[in-house]
Amino acid sequence: MSEAGVANLSIEDSQSSVASTATADAKKAAKEAAKAAKEAAKAERAQQRGVKAAVMTQPDPEDPLREQYGDYPMVQSREQSSRVWTKVESLGKDLSEQKVLVRARVHTTRGKGKSAFLVLRQRTATVQAVLFADDVTVSKGMVKYATQIPKESIVDLEGVVKVPEKPIEGCSQKDVELQVTGIRTVSRAATLPFELVDASRSEEEVKAAAERGEILPTVGQDLRLDNRFLDLRTPANQAIFRVQSAVCQIFKNTLLAEGFQEIHTPKLIAGASEGGAAVFRLDYMGVPACLAQSPQLYKQMAICADFDRVFEVGPVFRAEFSYTHRHLCEFMGLDLEMAIHEHYFEVLDVIEKLFAAIFDGLSTEYAKELAVIAQQYPFDVPTFKPLRLTFPEGIALLQQGGYPEVDPLGDLNTELERALGKIVKEKYGTDFFILHRYPSAVRPFYTMPCADDPTYSNSYDVFIRGEEIISGAQRVHDAELLTERATACGIPLDTIQSYIDSFKLGAPPHGGAGVGLERVVMLYCGLNNIRKTSMFPRDPKRLTP
Amino acid sequence: MSEAGVANLSIEDSQSSVASTATADAKKAAKEAAKAAKEAAKAERAQQRGVKAAVMTQPDPEDPLREQYGDYPMVQSREQSSRVWTKVESLGKDLSEQKVLVRARVHTTRGKGKSAFLVLRQRTATVQAVLFADDVTVSKGMVKYATQIPKESIVDLEGVVKVPEKPIEGCSQKDVELQVTGIRTVSRAATLPFELVDASRSEEEVKAAAERGEILPTVGQDLRLDNRFLDLRTPANQAIFRVQSAVCQIFKNTLLAEGFQEIHTPKLIAGASEGGAAVFRLDYMGVPACLAQSPQLYKQMAICADFDRVFEVGPVFRAEFSYTHRHLCEFMGLDLEMAIHEHYFEVLDVIEKLFAAIFDGLSTEYAKELAVIAQQYPFDVPTFKPLRLTFPEGIALLQQGGYPEVDPLGDLNTELERALGKIVKEKYGTDFFILHRYPSAVRPFYTMPCADDPTYSNSYDVFIRGEEIISGAQRVHDAELLTERATACGIPLDTIQSYIDSFKLGAPPHGGAGVGLERVVMLYCGLNNIRKTSMFPRDPKRLTP
């Protein structure tokens, strides 16, 4: 264990209600602490060398308190008891003096003479647990057993909830600690490739320490991703994926309330999806196939099939050699498509409702998770005001804002998008906005041209913090115009004939949008890399785990 | 249009409030009807030969009512009006004498002298619309225009809601009809590969007609699937996919309420997924990859990553040459995985809550959709009582029930599963039950053996109407035992080493299950083929549309 890990958790003995009752004098305590630390360091080094230290897993048979501790046999559905496990996050003053049973990970352990201090971790919650060998409720053997449990092991801990004199600063449950009466190991951890405390530390803390001349260990992205199931245990990661799940639920619930229904379209498709090189190809029972680059064609067919308003949450596949902070080869698409009566503004109305709900839902219902993320990756909650600018208006803002050379009929690159995001933030006070009426030349062939000027199209992108999270448009629902547009864009008609044909039997005017789930979470939380918001990211160099 | 189609909708003139005000004598009307039918048949034949009949798309410029009808220009987001469209399903007596605007498909048209009868269809709802040329609100040109609109075209229809003397038997909206004052076509349909009325007919109706000596057209499965976007417009299909969406929502909401969170795991994975031949292989940026056969390994990693209780709704891929009624090469997996404290019964508790919610939710909130499905595919709503039988108990029931030869340590084939389903239904009165403690030999290597007898395992299947919809188990969370089990099952360890390793850093005991979404809907609704519950099914012979 790194010293920094201990520092990070900063458990002060003086804060402990148990330790404070101890009578050992300060000098002796300091000596014993130094000895224990030396022993722990030695055991750690031995473990790192792959040498199995003689670790205590079962109690001394002579110990009168032997029933109170030791490794469980493997949990194998032997029996169901009436025992109740309390969640760490629910441990508070209201449970004071009550006996509880907790199953959690051992986050840190520290032995000190006759006492042991453990921090137990369960998802984003941590609590201090204290053993003091008094030979009545806790034996010396029990203390030894507890201090030898490897970090990240899972234990069942019985104890009494105590309110310490001072708050426990290093733990999420500051108002209480557990006075242990029983400890049993459910699953032992082997040597860790990195420390959770190191993986949970903010860059700010590392910098601040460096200024004091102290070098704190950090964990690189590849090492994290190679051991993702361990990396994901950090409080920030636990919170990020709760937020990700929340975004999905708000997306679905908002659209269901707006009359949408969930659909599932195939990811294995014939031909070349929407064309282009960025497609994964495979053999399907002897027939050439590819993985869908989006549910575009199928969600449009669902509209032609009268489903009226549909959404899909599913993986999309892009065989792109992109190594940027915001591209993945597989990501979650939140797609929606809807019949419109007159105007693509009907789609924009839905998109604004959707993001109002996401921004509001996260900042109110998930404030705790956002705070946990911000502890490691500080960010300001983004602001939301509905704002629609036309593409020409956006170009004018850029021209006035220091980019006079910007092409009024070209696409915006990442730099220009970010610049526009900044200008909009300053001028309108929102981190969210919609840019619509893009030039036709920079949109796909199935985009409906504007009626008044076909140089422009009934299309839109949506931005958070100056980065695109949504692309969408009114689609061409007229087979003749679609053929014309495809031809003009150089798309071989034979590859999309069945798609074109699906608009020939009465096609509702419609529009839609595709949202990148990982991007929404990344940009909402101001994170710097999309790999942080994908549970098991896929990029050109990473296919495992 | 088939005559059967008209018969099916059985719109009786005498039921029409508009027609009943007409003064034309019966003889003349009959003559004109015959003439109109002849003309319609002629136009149809011409259309079928690919000859474009001279169809009226714009009003006669001399018609004083020319503003009331004609094709719209293409809807292209020109402007947004304040017009409000009324849904067909909401047309009822409460709107009597009110003027409404409806956008819907032309389901059928029939001209008769100075009058025209249209049935408009919007998803599962239909309503009759009537035009009678009185030269005040409706001109002869308007009637002609209306009768020439091809079936499946989308129209905007203005009209006044009228309550007919007798209910309109052929429509879902029986209590009202629309007296048309304006009709405009939004999107014209070309020649249909089959008639919606033919595709919507029940086998029972075809049989009954055959007994009368009448042959009604039917539409085969391949023709339907080749034109799936048209086939999906039938009321039964509209209802099936609303039910499918509902099952998804109930699945998610029930599990969210039980403390689960939604995750998304990669479908592109290295190696061979869970092994075996039934895997789609592809090249991933020069590295061999495959499509995940299930999220099994990843959802278990999510548990090792402390997510505690997770679910995933995502596609699963099986490269199996199965042509049965219940296998697909791509289907939607509803997966769940959860840490357990002691026993896999904790998972079964969740599964029973889940299906109680699904059965209850469908039969109460989706009774209308179930009735629509039953119109074409008659079925009894299945019964739900929680019931758990051990595998040996199931074997005993089969042995007593006419299958004395059944292997007590073998797997159950489809015939035996169905037989057991029948026996259970008779004895316990439930279409749903859980069979647990399967022989270890018939379960995957990662299944936890029973503590008291490793011949059996902590595993389970769940059945509806005697067909399996769920497979699941407590998993082996101990790396040593997992290695032992894999070796015993002949799995090459090097292919699963990283999976095994993920249990070495403290692994919570856990279990889970995988549900096939299409199977749940198929079996709940007593449908005979899983292709009916997959929007765009994939089987060894079908990759399109």
TrEMBL record, chains A, B:
Q: Name one Pfam family in it.
A: tRNA_anti-codon
The answer, when asked if Oxidoreductase is one of the entry's keywords, is: no
Q: For this protein, what reaction is catalysed?
A: tRNA(Asp) + L-aspartate + ATP = L-aspartyl-tRNA(Asp) + AMP + diphosphate
MF terms in GO:
aspartate-tRNA ligase activity; ATP binding; RNA binding
Where do the Aminoacyl-transfer RNA synthetases class-II family profile domain residues begin and end?
Answer: 241-545
Instruction: Return the EC number.
Output: 6.1.1.12
Q: Which portions of the sequence form the region Disordered?
A: 1-66
- What Gene3D superfamilies does this protein's entry cite? Bira Bifunctional Protein, Domain 2 (3.30.930.10), Nucleic acid-binding proteins (2.40.50.140)
A Gene Ontology biological process noted in the UniProt record is:
aspartyl-tRNA aminoacylation
Query: Keywords in UniProt for this one?
Result: Aminoacyl-tRNA synthetase, ATP-binding, Cytoplasm, Ligase, Nucleotide-binding, Protein biosynthesis
- Kindly list the places in or outside the cell where this protein is found, as annotated in its UniProt entry: Cytoplasm
- What spans are recorded as compositionally biased (Polar residues)? 11-21
Main location as per UniProt: cytoplasm
* Segments of skewed composition (Basic and acidic residues): 25-47
Question: Which Gene Ontology terms of cellular component type are present?
Answer: aminoacyl-tRNA synthetase multienzyme complex; cytosol
The family database entries (InterPro entries) matched by this protein are listed as: Aa-tRNA-synt_II (IPR004364), aa-tRNA-synth_II (IPR006195), aa-tRNA-synth_II/BPL/LPL (IPR045864), Asp-tRNA_synthase_2 (IPR004523), Asp/Asn-tRNA-synth_IIb (IPR002312), NA-bd_OB-fold (IPR012340), NA-bd_OB_tRNA (IPR004365)
* Similarity field: Belongs to the class-II aminoacyl-tRNA synthetase family. Type 2 subfamily.
* Name of the protein described by the UniProt record: aspartate--tRNA ligase
